[in-house]
Every structure is written in C-alpha cells, then in structure tokens.
Design goal:
The complex is a heterodimer of chains A (82) and B (267). Chain A is an alpha+beta fold. Chain A is built from two helices and two strands. Chain B is built from 13 helices and eight strands.
Chain lengths: 82, 267
C-alpha cells in the first residue's frame, strides 16, 4: 500500500462494490431456489385466464410464494391497464 | 465404505482439476487409499495434471459400458501407491454417464477405497450433476471474483436440492476452498476478501490457496502442486488436507507480506 492510498475513501473500493452486488444477486437467487417448481406454470395459466377478460402482459402478473411461520402465502399481483 | 467427495464450482477455470489432483494426492500421502475420477467426459484433463496421460488405456465410460473392468481402467500413481486415477473418456457422447452406471462403479470402488474424489466438469449440466449426485461431502472451489462466487452459490443450491443426500432428506457436507487469492490486492480493496466470500456463501472455509506461479509450473510438469511444499500454494493445500481431517489450523497466506519502509511509501 503506498502512502497515497491511505487518503482514498475505503468505502468505494471495487471489492466493496462487488460484495454489495453479490449480496443482492445471491439473496435473489436463493429466494428463487426456494420457490416451488410449478410457479412459472402457475403464472402462465393465471395470465391466460386474465387475458380472456383484460389485455395484460406477462410482466403485469407477479406470483410469489412466501412462508410465514406455519402458513405459506400465495401472492398474486396483477396490474390492470388504466 | 468410502467417503465420496465432489470437487465442484459451477464456473470453469477456477481450479477444480488442480484441487482434485492436490486433494487426492494429499489424502493418499496421509495413508488413505484414494481414487480420483475425472467426470469431464469429452474434455479429459486430470490425466495431464497427474502425469499419466500416456498410460490411459481404458476410461470411465468403458467401465460403465462394460468394455473394461475397473482394474483395467484404474491407473496407479507412480509417486504414491495409495493413489489411483480413473480417467474420463474423450467421447463426444455426453450422456454416456448414466446414474445407474456411475452408482455401480462408485459402489464397487467403495469396497476397497477410503476416499473417492469426483472431479466435476464446469457448468450445471448432466456431467456436473452426475459428479455431485452421490457425494457425501463437497469442496466448492471459488475465485475471489463476482462470477465465480455467484456460480458457487448456484452449485450450492443444486447440492442442496438435487443430490442423493438431499433427496433422502439429509445433506451434503459443504467446504469452501478459495483459490487464486491475492492478499495484496484484497488488502487494497481491489479484490473480494476471504471474509466477504465466506459471508456471502455462508459455507465453512476449508482453505485459501494463494495466487502462485507454482500452480502453472506444477501443471506443466504433471506434478500435483501439493508435492511442491516449498511453494505457498502447496503448503496451503497441505493445510487444507489437515483441516479436512479434523485439525484446527489457522489460515495462512491471507494477509499481505509486510513490506519495507521504502516500498511502503512509494508503493
């Protein structure tokens, strides 16, 4: 380490940026791994049903499963066009 | 009953084969009868790293397909009589590895060996899944670099869901091995530190292998780097073996070498 390095702000090192990016991507990945394998199919079929009535996109339907104590919660979020 | 250990990483080029060679040689030198299997069908390389490429007659796939017996295919290491190598086939047929075939060979090896080391191919496809499916323990090789860490996390997820142990409701014992670690760059904040990687992956650390020119020299010559005990990398692998066998050793080569006052001022 040269003497000039000591004045550099430690927070912005590229290693710190790498760590923060990885923490986010890994947390996301692990959530996905925990989800049941039928979820993408479920999302597609829900979308197909809604499409019969309203014109929505794949991106407008979010399906999530979360765990709270002993209950699993299936959360379906549909953004309808205004 | 042998213990089956997979050396895996997801990402390619991080040091799986180097590690497989070093770990298997280290275990064999400590007196354990060890066999190392190359699962990288079509891209055989362990034979080169172990200096037995000219002695390959039959391979893994030959044995699975019943064209050769295990004894015909196993190559005895010239340096350590406890170590055997089962080379990969150079066939292009990647589906040559069947789960039943692999299981049969592992069972047969299990009767006479203490350790079976499975050198996984890169990726998460069939070959990599076959290499990890029967594992009791896994050594996940990671470089201090974003894509390698992410892929290691992915492979950990697969170990926890698609291995035989996971299917049976138990788990594969995981070990993290960080390779190509540059202490000086990590200290400057130019490279993920050991702490960063262990925090992100949350797997017990088996060892840290420093970036070292001796690794290339070793593979040039077909000598597992663990035999070069003058090198930092060789010593770090030897430490990892002792930790694997249950010793509590402090990590070496994770802090930068202290420099003199002049180089400290001028960098």
């Amino acid at each position: 380490m040269s003497i000039f390095d000591r004045f550099r702000v430690k927070e912005n090192t590229s290693a710190n940026i790498a760590r923060e990016r990885l923490q986010i991507v890994v947390a996301h990945q692990r959530n996905k791994d925990k989800q049941p394998s039928y979820l993408p199919q479920l999302q597609r079929e829900i979308l197909a049903v809604i499409k019969k009535f309203v014109d929505v996109d794949m991106d407008d339907v979010a399906v999530d499963i979360s765990q709270e104590n002993m209950t699993s919660i299936l959360e379906v979020n549909v953004t309808l066009p205004s | 009953m042998a213990k089956i250990i997979v050396v895996t990483s997801g990402k390619g080029g991080v040091g799986k084969t180097t590690t497989s060679a070093a770990i298997s040689m280290g275990l064999a030198l400590s007196g354990k009868k060890t066999v190392v299997i190359d699962f990288d069908i079509g891209l055989r390389n362990l034979d080169l790293i172990m200096d037995c490429e000219r002695r390959v007659v039959f391979d893994f796939v030959n044995v699975i397909q019943g064209d050769a017996s295990l004894n015909q295919a196993l190559i005895k290491d010239k340096r350590c009589e406890k170590l055997f190598i089962l080379p990969a086939s150079q066939t292009r047929d990647k589906d040559a590895l069947t789960k039943e075939g692999v299981e049969k060979i592992l069972n047969e090896l299990s009767e006479t060996f203490d350790y079976i080391i499975c050198d996984s191919p890169a990726g998460i496809e069939h070959g990599a899944q076959m290499a990890l499916y029967f594992a009791d323990e896994a050594i996940v090789v990671t470089n201090p670099e974003v894509s390698s860490v992410r892929d290691s996390d992915r492979i950990l997820g697969i170990l926890q869901s698609k291995s035989r142990r996971a299917e049976q409701g138990s788990s594969v014992k995981e070990h993290l091995l960080i390779t190509r670690y540059d202490t000086a760059r990590a200290a400057k904040g130019e490279m993920l530190s050991v702490t960063d990687i262990v925090d992100i992956l949350a797997v017990p650390l088996l060892g840290v292998i420093p970036e070292s020119s001796s690794v290339l020299t070793a593979s040039n010559q077909g000598t597992p780097v663990i035999l070069d005990l003058k090198s930092n990398a060789g010593q770090a692998y030897a430490d990892a073996i002792r930790r694997f066998e249950g010793e509590d050793l402090e990590m070496r080569f994770i802090k930068p070498v202290k420099k003199g006052i002049l180089s400290r001022v001028f960098g």
